[in-house]
Model the fold of this input.
Amino acid sequence: MGAKSRYLPAVLLIAGFVASVLIPSTGLVNDYLQFVLMSVAINAILCVSLNLVNGWMGEFSVGHAGFMALGAYASAVLTVKLFPGAPPLLLFPAAVLIGGAVAGVAGIPIGILSFKTRGDYLAIITLAFLMIVKSGLENIPYTGGPRGMLGIPRLTTVAWAYFWCVVAFWVIRNLVYSKYGRGISAIREDEIAAEAMGVPTRSAKLVAFVTSSFFAGVAGALFAHQLQFINPSSFDILKSTEILVMVYLGGVASLGGSLLGAGVVTILTQCLQPLGTWRMVVLPALLVLLMLFRPGGIMGYRDWSWLKPRRSPKPRPKNEDGQQPEIGEVSP
Amino acid sequence: MKYLIQQAINALQLGSIYALIALGYSMVYGVLSMINFAHGDVFMLGAFFCLLLIAIVPVPFWLALIVVMGATAILGTLIERFAYRPLRNAPRVSAIITALGCGLVIQNTTLGISPYARPMPRLIDNVTYEFGGLTFTTLQLIIIGVSVVLMVLLDFLIRKTSFGMAMRAISSDRAMVPLLGIPANRVIAITFALGAALGGAAGLLYGMAYPVVSAAMGISVGWKAFVAAVIGGIGNMRGAVLGAFLLGGGEVMTVAVLPSTYRDLISYSLLLLILVFKPHGLLGKPTLQKA
Amino acid sequence: MHKPLRALLFPAAIVCSGALLLTSCQPSKPSVKIGINAELTGEMPAVGASCKQAAELFAEQVNKAGGIAVGTEKLPLQLSVVDNSCKADQAAAAAQRLISQNGVLVMVGPNASSCAIPAGEIAESLGCLMISPWSTNPKTTVDSTTGKTKKNVFRACFTDRFESPVLAAFATKNLHAKTAAVLYDVSSEAPTSQSTLFKEAFEKAGGKVVAMETYTTGDRDFAAQLTKIRETAPDIIYLPAPYNDTPLIAAQARQLGIKAPFLGSDAWSSPDIIKLDTGKSLEGSYFCNHYSTEAPNPKAKQFIADYTARFGNAPDDVAALTYDAMTLAADSVAKAGKLDRSAVRDAMASTRAFDGVTGQFVYPEGAREPAKSAVIMQIKNGGFHWVSTVNP
Done:
């Protein structure tokens, strides 16, 4: 890999950011396509954050929509009820961060519960969590109860969605390719052996759940400010299922797979609109077929090489002549 | 007091239906350690098969029940054969996702074919009886009666027949069973068929109790029954029945006292509470999970 | 398996993006585009179907006559139909799609108030005229943040503020009811506001509401709430539930021994309600409607004949109101004289009187809903029968 390609990803990212800022101002891309682009970005964030728990850590969480709901409602309360007149450039990132933080805090009890419970029972606990969040929101009149919250300002733009998407991918990519991340993958492979090898499983689980739910909250906040209207039934088991479909279609434990899954499902959902209800037959059928032939998803457990960290060879100490020692020769 | 007993009768009816569906979940989990997410939609198809049957040839209730149970049993076997068996040795997660996918396909295909809610024709003469200020109907008696009979039959099958013993053996140690000469695939297929048949019966009874049938009914009822199975200890038949009646009772009592928006909140909080203190359900046994 | 799959990935991505771009391309011939945001699937598919069919009938008739006169030329009417599955967030997304991608001039629908309210917010923020045929909830035309009337959202029907007092008056004067019980869906906008308004009106008319019970959308078992209602022994039960939940509730009530007649809102108006009421529990019950096939004016007679000839069944109130909404939309475009959204909107706002299939419309200055008559219907002998008309 030459020196030029070292900077290529960074250059492309910045170019993408500039493009996303310019897109709304020029008339090139119409409103609807912008809407779809934002949806792809939001779904990508949801996908990669769920992938952290379901893919890299090997659990089966179905409660992701619950964290999304918490983020959506928390940020909406901030922008609609508490600070309706504040300047958007300041308010929106704060709202998104707080939405993410609320969801992240909610991830702590789930993380703690996961210390003792694994597998199917943890899945059921996440399901219970999702239903409790949804049902709880239905009973809070302050946020509109079951009829939902109207009048959320349209603060999500292609630029913001892109920005948060890049942040999410960057954070999670650095997490999974770090020593910590290897610990998370070790939990997936064999938890008892990992503990025996000294992996701090408890803190790893906690970090995974909190990071995952934080970004789900971020995505929820972006979602609320894109649709301008949220109600508890937007965040039910069907939404969680949608995210699961994206993760398992694109590929578990894969950053590229998360992006791919989110992109394919979002775009297909829009393209297949003319089919009506049959659209929701085609998508799951595709998923079932994929599971039969490729159980990990399209890019399961693999990633594009430019996402992985470069591993430069460890420099070998030179001997007295200033020469690199031959292999096999013992150096002082 | 009378009011509470009236509500208890309602709870018995709801609980019976949940129990029939929950048994299906538990049976499949017992033999395959897999949550069959398509089961709720098999339940929904039970009601639709009944509609189809009555539209072609009007039959009396007991015949409709038998035919519907047969049809859903065949459906269950087909799903197992083509969607689950190839994934028998794949990571568990793929099987679960496949089950989810199958469920979605079934549900949306039915929705596509019949987007409108349909009325369930009357199969029995519904007479309301009054007894000391309490009302109950023939329908309620039939639902509770049929459910109890089916549950007792299943319990007998599992505990007293050799087939039941084979099912229990597969739950204990799936790899060992073929070595003992038991056709594991056949036992698993029949287990699926039985579970699906019970689900189909539940669908028919539910359709009779709430005679507006729509393709979306599988979701809410299916998930509730799944929760019931887990409360009782998934994999355990008696636990499934216990969990179902507990959940049905809890739901009816919640709505009797609080606004109905609290119903799901209380049900799922109850579930969470039970799982925190008894992680394997009320009657479940802890299984060693390596990964 | 890897290589062939990977080789397919890139072309697949290109195809998908291409398809998306193509679907967003505008057709080259100018036409008057009207979007239909309808509940084709979900809780009330009969409502969506009626709406779509009435819109199609109107479009066919208009195009057969040469199109809509915009300025000097006659342009064809082009319909864009999008399903909102009777879900609030999908209604908002459908509105986005119709207005931004399909570039419609006017949006007709949604009908269910829970969908019309969020769709209205989108229409308002994107500056596109929206006419809801059937949404009676007052909130549809009110901006939730400012509390003022929306600029772009109109309706073709009266609101609950007119309907609920009409029903309350009917209950107290004609049915001589002194006590009433109410059972409604608290998770849906329309029944909730209708119940609150009914309670106010009923108590103002001298009656007493003895029970206000709630349930959630999708509930099937109402035994708990009905048992509570039974204890209070009301004279009538107000049940503003949609046409596929009402037979269920009524059947369970009759099973529990409740004999009081039911009173319904305009949500009962689909003929499917009788089909679904296999136990005849609704026999003798009354509800409020927008028009009746039995007491029609000449325009209605023509419409009913055309609709029945085209689709095989008589039109319900949703169909009639959609036809009127489409007529209003087309007239506004013709009055505006150009394919410009704000001009069309101003033309609609300047409409004062309109003679429609569902009766005489009068739009006072600044109002978004017409003052028009309501009819009371009774379900008897397997059909709807007109009882009386109430004028504003």
